[in-house]
Amino acid sequence: xxxxxxxxxxxxxxxxxxxxxxxxxxxxxxxxxxxxxxxxxxxxxxxxxxxxxxxxxxxxxxxxxxxxxxxxxxxxxxxxxxxxxxxxxxxxxxxxxxxxxxxxxxxxxxxxxxxxxxxxxxxxxxxxxxxxxxxxxxxxxxxxxxxxxxxxxxxxxxxxxxxxxxxxxxxxxxxxxxxxxxxxxxxxxxxxxxxxxxxxxxxxxxxxxxxxxxxxxxxxxxxxxxxxxxxxxxxxxxxxxxxxxxxxxxxxxxxxxxxxxxxxxxxxxxxxxxxxxxxxxxxxxxxxxxxxxxxxxxxxxxxxxxxxxxxxxxxxxxxxxxxxxxxxxxxxxxxxxxxxxxxxxxxxxxxxxxxxxxxxxxxxxxxxxxxxxxxxxxxxxxxxxxxxxxxxxxxxxxxxxxxxxxxxxxxxxxxxxxxxxxxxxxxxxxxxxxxxxxxxxxxxxxxxxxxxxxxxxxxxxxxxxxxxxxxxxxxxxxxxxxxxxxxxxxxxxxxxxxxxxxxxxxxxxxxxxxxxxxxxxxxxxxxxxxxxxxxxxxxxxxxxxxxxxxxxxxxxxxxxxxxxxxxxxxxxxxxxxxxxxxxxxxxxxxxxxxxxxxxxxxxxxxxxxxxxxxxxxxxxxxxxxxxxxxxxxxxxxxxxxxxxxxxxxxxxxxxxxxxxxxxxxxxxxxxxxxxxxxxxxxxxxxxxxxxxxxxxxxxxxxxxxxxxxxxxxxxxxxxxxxxxxxxxxxxxxxxxxxxx
Length: 740
Ligand SMILES: Nc1ncnc2c1ncn2[C@@H]1O[C@H](COP(=O)(O)OP(=O)(O)OP(=O)(O)O)[C@@H](O)[C@H]1O
Prior knowledge:
Its EC number is 5.6.2.3. Belongs to the RecD family. RecD2 subfamily. The protein is an alpha/beta fold. It folds into five domains: about 1-70, CATH 2.40.50.140; about 75-155, DNA polymerase, domain 1; about 170-280, Arc Repressor Mutant, subunit A, CATH 1.10.10.2220; about 285-480, 3-Layer(aba) Sandwich (Rossmann fold), CATH 3.40.50; about 500-570 and about 585-715, Rossmann fold (3-Layer(aba) Sandwich), CATH 3.40.50. It is about 40% helix and about 25% strand. It has 25 helices and 30 strands. The strands form seven sheets. The chain has a seven-stranded antiparallel beta sheet. It has a six-stranded parallel beta sheet with strand order 11-10-14-15-9-16, with helices on both faces. The chain has a five-stranded mixed β-barrel with strand order 1-2-3-5-4. A hairpin with a 4-residue loop joins β19 and β20. The model is unreliable at about 730-740 (pLDDT under 50).
C-alpha cells in the first residue's frame, strides 16, 4: 500500500532498539515537543542527534502511530545539553557519561567541531592522556565520516542502507573515493542503481563518455544479466547494449572497455572465435571450477578395494539386486575422486546413493551430505537417514574484518571429510559452487547428484548441464524406472514429458488427475475447493502443510499474486486476534504461509536454544507473530524462529501458491498445478517436468489438454551464456588466472 511521503524533524530522545547487523532502529524522536516513535534502517544513531526524516506514518490499534522512515539526514546536536547527551550515550567509543560532561564543560557548543577538526585539543581535558586522545580522535573520525556520507547521499534520496554499506566497504575513505568516482556506489555489496549513481556523477560534471561511467554501465549490464542466468555476454551484444543504454559511440565504448580489461575490471574469454565478457566474480568462479574439477577428476583411490565384493555385501544386507548402471555408479564413486549421478524420478538415485554412503562408512570414511536449499537438505536427510546440511550451513557463513560476508571453510580451512555428496546439483549456481570447491581438500571425493532435466539454477550459470556436457567428468545416468515407481503415474508421466511424449491425462484411479477447465473463474473455484475442502477431506491433508499450489507465472489470473490473495482470504481470513501488516503487494497476517525470496545472511533465528543467522531463497515458513509496536514479525521456518523487521517483509511473499521456478528442490505431498495458457514465455517442457516432479503422492492438473501438450512440444532449453563447458574441455585461449 502506498503511503503519503512526509518530512519530520527532531532530536533523538531515546533509542529503544537497534539491530547492529542491518542498521534497523526504533527510536523516540522529540519533534518540537511531540514524541514520535520512528522505525527504519537508519544506521547507528544516538540519543541527542538531530534528524530530518522522510517516510510515512503507520498506525497500529494497540501501539498508536509510528513514523516509518526511508530517508534520513543527520544533524549533529547543537545545544550543550544535547551534545552532552549525545556523547554520553556512547556515540564515540571511549567516551562515557563522565568524560562527556568534562569535555562539554570545557568546549561547550564547539565540542563536536573541535572533535572533528582539531581532535588533538581533547588532550587539554584533565584525565585524557595523549594516547587516549588519539584513540578518541580515531573513533570520532569514523563517526563524522558516516555522517558526512549519509548527508551527502540523502540529497539524492539514496536510502540509508546504501550509505551504511558504502561505509562498511570503504571505511573512512568512503567520501574521498566517492568524490573521485561516484560509480563505486554501483559496485559489489553496495549495488546502488546505475541511474542514481549517474545522477550524482552528472552533478559532479563527469562526462558522458568518461571511462568510469562506461565501465560502471558495462558492469551494471553484466550484473543484470547475471541476475537472469548469464555468467557472461558476447562482446558484440554487450557493446551494442552499452551504447544504447548510455548514449555513447562505439569508439567511446571500446576505449573504456580496453582500459577495463587492462585493469582486470572485466575479463574476456574466447570461445569458438567469439569474445565473451565477464565480471571478475563470474570469471574467477568459472575458471576456478574448471581448474579444480580437472584436479579432482584425476584423483583415484589408492586403495585396492574389491568393488564387486563390496556391492555384493550391500545387496545381501539390503536384500536388493542393483541393476548394471547402479553398480557402475557405485564402483565409480568408490574408485574415483569425482562423479555425477543423474536420472529422472524413480530411477534409483537415492537407493544407489545410500549404498555408496554405506560402503564409504564401512571403510571408515567421513561422509558429508549437503544440498542447495533447506528443503532439499531436509529431504536428503530423510532419505539417507543421516544429517544433510544446506551448502551455506556446511561452509559456515561468517563476516570478515570489513563486516563482509564470507565462508569459514575455504582453501585454508577445508571441510573435514573424505567424501562430499551434493544433492539437487541442478540448483547450484557457479558462484556458490566455486566457494564449495575451495573448501574441498585434495583427495576428498565429490559426488554430485541431480536431474539435469530440471530447470537450471536461479543463480547464474548452467553448472550441472555444463559439467555433464563437457564429458570430462564420469557421469552415470540411471534410466530404468523401477517397478515400485512404475505404479506411480506421476513418475511415468514425468518420464513421458521429458521424452517429449504427452502425459496420460485419462486415468481417474491414479496419483495423477486432470480436470479440464477452460474458464478462469471456474478454475479458481476448483483450486480453492480442492485445497480447502476436497483434498483435506479425502486424504486428511492439511491445506497449507501438505498441499502446494504451483503455477508457471507470477502474473495473470492464475499467477501467484492473484492466487495468493484469494487463498489467503479462504485459508487464513482476517480475525480479531490476528495481527496484520500491510505490505506493497500483500497484507501479511499472523498464520500466513510465506516464502523468503532472496538469500539473507543477516536475519537471526533461534531453534531449541540454538542461535543462528540466515534465511534463504525458497525457504517456506509461517508467520507466528506480528508486533506493530516494535515493527517486528516472527516467522517459523521448520522450527527456526526468525525475527524480521517490517522492512525485511519485502523479501517475503505469501506462499499458498508459488511459481514452479521457486519450487525447485522442494517436494510436497500434493501439488495442484493450473495450466491455463497465457504465459507463452513460460510454456515449455522443463517447466512442466519440474512442476510434475514436485508432487510426492498426488498431482492435480487443471486446464486444457491443448496447453499441456503445447508445453511438452516446446523443448526450448533456457539458453544461458556461459563458457564453463568450454573451459572444462580445456580449449581456452586465455590462460587461467590460477596457473597450472
Ligand atoms: N535395484 C533395485 N531393485 C529394485 N527396486 C529398486 C532398485 N533400486 C531402486 N529401487 C526402488 O525404486 C524406487 C525408486 O528408487 P529411488 O527412490 O532410489 O529413486 P530416485 O531416483 O531417488 O527417485 P526420486 O528422484 O523420485 O526420489 C524405490 O521404491 C526403490 O526402492
